[in-house]
Structure formats: structure tokens, C-alpha cells
Specification:
Blueprint (H helix, E strand, L loop, with lengths): L1 H14 L14 E6 L13 H12 L10 E7 L1 H6 L6 E2 L2 E2 L4 H8 L4 E7 L4 H26 L2 E5 L8 H14 L13 E5 L7 H11 L10 E3 L8 H13 L16 E6 L8 H4 L5 H4 L1 H6 L13 E7 L16 H10 L13
Parallel strand pairs: 1-2, 1-10, 2-5, 5-6, 6-7, 7-8, 8-9, 9-10
Antiparallel strand pairs: 3-4
């Protein structure tokens, strides 16, 4: 019986039925997880790869030796500490001590792209302070870290009230002066993305600016956006409604938010946090990444972009995203949910050059 159970576990990823293709569908290209380490997104200590693997093996092995994701975003870098290149008990030269080259290589050696996320809701004031002090140097420092570690950078600036858009533009300009936009995706450090709200009704000013000036298909500045998780796990219809807002824009707002090309953003779900294990982690057949799959692969442009389908999915968040609640460490690891989706959607590894329109 034990041998039979082991064989079933090995073959399970191959036995999952593929998600049916639909007319006008586009394969997913981005399928990734934010990663909070083992200390609620601080990444304050150096970890051995043996310890790290014991908590995170599912990310590199969905049960058949293939990774469950093609992107991991290490979250979070403190904005002011990056600007000042701080060294303290939890930080080395502006970067959390746990975000080491060994951890980056743990993923990249298996064809998984790695990025660092700057900010998060806890560091909103720190984003404001860093932009006000020296946004240009802040952007240069981010580019230098990206080049040194061979990673991309995610902007997670969650200021809902009067964000410093002039400073954010200076940060992006400085980053791009060092690392120009690269449509091929060949240079990992040139990958620069931004997080937007789940829909268009929060982070309105940032969403408007990003959509109008940085996420255009004709003059791209940022590679793409992540539509973040809402306050709680949405229903299938709720998730789709949020994403449709980005595609449609908000023409009645003053000033309006323009439409966003489906090829320029991902959608997101929770896999950890709260007090129960979610099917998004453990059971693909019962998951939102399955029930929304038809929409994500076929979403039609509505004023921006030419090709149907969103870019893919992101999951919040691997290992321990908060001090309370479930984690994705064993026995809750996510081979059956996220890994099952990687098989069903035939997620490409490594990530290919992304659609541009």
C-alpha cells in the first residue's frame, strides 16, 4: 500500500486534467508567488539552504521534479534602508540579510525567476520618506541591488492618499537609466514591475499614473503590474469583476483611469494567511485559479492592447506571511494547488519573453 501511495503521489501532477482551452485563449506566462520568509516578510536572518528547502521544497518540486512556479518575489525590502544602504542587525547594505545570493540561486538554478519587492503596506511611510529625501538615488540603489543579485525589482508603494508621483517617476527614471526596458526578458535585473489594487477603486492615483504612462503597450516603461489580493479571498465573480475594472478603466472618474491591456497585468489569490488551509494551496480542482482560468486566458482588450488574456497569476504568500495563521510549510505545502495549476496550465519554465500587447 505504501508503494502504491508513493506511486500515486508521483504521478498525480500528470493525472490532473488540463484546463480546457477556449477559443481566443492565450497561455499563461507568469505564475508566481510572493515569498515572506519565515519571519512575516522581514527576511531578517541568514538561513541555510537546507532549512529553507525543508519549508519551501514545494516551490521547486510540484511532486514530479518540476517547479510549481516560474517566479518568486522576495518580500519586502525597506525603502529608507535601501536608500541609505543601511547595515544593522536585520539589514546588510540596504537589503534584508535573509535575501542572500544562495536563496536567489536556490530558485534561479531551477529556472525560476526571482525579484525583490520594495515596500508593502507596512512600509508605506518609508516609501514616502525615501521618495521625499532622494528619489533618484533610491532608484539607482534599487538598480544596483538588482544587478548585484541578478534579480528584478517590484514597486509595492501602497499610498492611497496623495502618493508622491513626482518622486516615483524620478525613482523609475533612475532605475531605467541604469537598466533600460528589455522586452526580451533576457536580463533579470531589467525586469521592473508595480503592484496595483485588486481593482481600480483603491490606489487610484497610482493606478491612473501607472496605466497612463508606465504600462502602455506602445511606449512601455514598466514590464507589467500585479493586481494585488483584496482585503479577503474573493469569490470567482468578485475576482473577475476586479480584474475587469483594470481592463475597462474608469472613464467616469475625474480625471479618468484609462484601460489597461490584459497582457500587462496578473491577478492574485491568497494561499496562506488566516486560520485555514486554502484550496488555492492544496486542491487545484477546488481553487480559484481553476474557476477563473477561462477568464484569465480569454479576457478581451477594451481600449488597450491587442491580444486576449491576462498575463497570469500571483499567490500571496509563500512560507509565513504573518505572525499568526497558517503557512505554506509542511504539512500545508502547495504542490496540490499551485503546483497542480502549473501542470494544468502548462506553465512555461523558464519564463519566456512576455507578450507586449
Amino acid at each position: 500500500m505504501r508503494r502504491l501511495a508513493a506511486l500515486v503521489s508521483l504521478l498525480l501532477p500528470f493525472l490532473l486534467p488540463p484546463v480546457p482551452a477556449h477559443a481566443g485563449s492565450t497561455p499563461l506566462q507568469v505564475y508566481g508567488a510572493w515569498h515572506c520568509g519565515d519571519d512575516a516578510c522581514i527576511w531578517g536572518t541568514v538561513r541555510s539552504t537546507t532549512d529553507f528547502d525543508s519549508k519551501n521544497h514545494w516551490l521547486i518540486d510540484r511532486g514530479d521534479g518540476r517547479p510549481s512556479v516560474n517566479l518568486v518575489v522576495l518580500s519586502f525590502v525597506h525603502p529608507v534602508k535601501l536608500l541609505h544602504r543601511t547595515t544593522d542587525a536585520q539589514t546588510l547594505d540596504g537589503v534584508p540579510r535573509g535575501m542572500t545570493s544562495d536563496i536567489v540561486n536556490y530558485f534561479t538554478s531551477r529556472g525560476i525567476r526571482v525579484m525583490l519587492s520594495i515596500g508593502g503596506i507596512t512600509y508605506t511611510d518609508a516609501w514616502n520618506a525615501a521618495l521625499a529625501e532622494n528619489a533618484t538615488q533610491f532608484g539607482r540603489n534599487a538598480a544596483e541591488v538588482a544587478q548585484r543579485l541578478g534579480v528584478g525589482i517590484e514597486i509595492d508603494y501602497e499610498e492611497n492618499s496623495r502618493p508622491d508621483l513626482v518622486g516615483l517617476q524620478a525613482f523609475i527614471d533612475a532605475y531605467r537609466s541604469a537598466l533600460p526596458y528589455d522586452a526580451t526578458g533576457a536580463d533579470p535585473a531589467a525586469r521592473l514591475t508595480i503592484d496595483l489594487a485588486a481593482g481600480d477603486r483603491w490606489l487610484i492615483d497610482i493606478g491612473r499614473k501607472a496605466t497612463a504612462d508606465w504600462l502602455r503597450t506602445d511606449l512601455p516603461v514598466l514590464d507589467y503590474a500585479n493586481a494585488m489580493v483584496p482585503a479577503r479571498q474573493p469569490s470567482t465573480s468578485g475576482a473577475i469583476a476586479n480584474w475587469q475594472e483594470h481592463i475597462d478603466g474608469k472613464p467616469t472618474y475625474s480625471p479618468p483611469i484609462p484601460p489597461l491591456a490584459p497582457a500587462k497585468f496578473t491577478g492574485a489569490f491568497y494561499i496562506a494567511e488566516g486560520n485555514k488551509v486554502r484550496p488555492e494551496c492544496t486542491d487545484f480542482d477546488a481553487s480559484l485559479q481553476k474557476s477563473t482560468g477561462s477568464f484569465v486566458q480569454t479576457a478581451a482588450p477594451n481600449g488597450a492592447g491587442l491580444t486576449p488574456g491576462m498575463l497570469g497569476y500571483m499567490f500571496w504568500a509563500a512560507e509565513r506571511p504573518s505572525t499568526r495563521g497558517v503557512t505554506t510549510a509542511p504539512p500545508n505545502s502547495c504542490e496540490g494547488g499551485v503546483g497542480g495549476g502549473a501542470t494544468a496550465y502548462a506553465i512555461p519554465l523558464p519564463m519566456p519573453a512576455l507578450r507586449q500587447s
